Amino acid sequence: MSARLDMFGSPAATRFWKHIIAANKALADSAVPVGTRELMNIRASQINGCGACLDMHTKEAAAAGETALRLHLVAAWREATVYTDAERAALELTEYGTRLADAGQGVPDEVWANAAKHYDDEQLADLVAQIALINAFNRGNVIIRQPSGGYQVGQAH
Question: Roughly what angle, to the nearest 10 degrees, separates helices 109-118 and 121-144?
Answer without folding.
Answer: 120
